[in-house]
Design a protein that fits this description.
The protein is an all-alpha fold. The protein contains one helix and no strands. It is rod-shaped and about 155 Å long.
């Protein structure tokens, strides 16, 4: 083979190699274009579905905020009623508590005196239990 033939064969091999390389790149670019097209369609579809969902979420959030405002108002009212009830209970306890204790003590004293008189001086009424418990050990 002469130098011209070798150069022709080498040129032919390089041309075939470039043709194969270009065809692989063309197939890869075609697949990439298809993937990009499908991705674009998917993003458009998601956008169409997401916009109404975002609107509904915004409406739900506004509604929840309004309900929380109502609950805050109710909570403040309940706190005020609780404070008023506590003040009323304190007033009633201080107004009636002292005199009722005195009346109860007086009634107890009268019963005891009547009981002592009726039963004689030697007989003493039993005192109230003081809540003593026996020591029961679990051995």
């Amino acid at each position: 083979m002469s130098g011209g033939e070798v150069a022709g064969v080498a040129g032919l091999v390089v041309a075939v190699f470039w043709a194969i390389l270009v065809s692989f790149l063309a197939v890869a670019l075609a697949r990439l274009a298809g993937t990009l097209r499908r991705t674009t369609e998917m993003v458009a579809s998601i956008t169409e579905q997401a916009v109404p969902l975002l609107g509904e979420a915004s409406d739900a959030l506004r509604s929840a905020h309004a309900q929380l405002d109502r609950v805050d108002t109710i909570t403040a009212d309940v706190a005020e009623v609780t404070a008023n009830a506590s003040a009323l209970a304190g007033t009633v306890a201080s107004t009636f508590g002292g005199p009722l204790v005195k009346v109860a003590a007086f009634g107890y004293g009268v019963r005891r005196a009547v009981g002592l008189q009726a039963g004689g001086a030697g007989k003493v009424l039993p005192t109230a239990r003081r809540g003593r418990r026996r020591n029961r050990s679990k051995d």
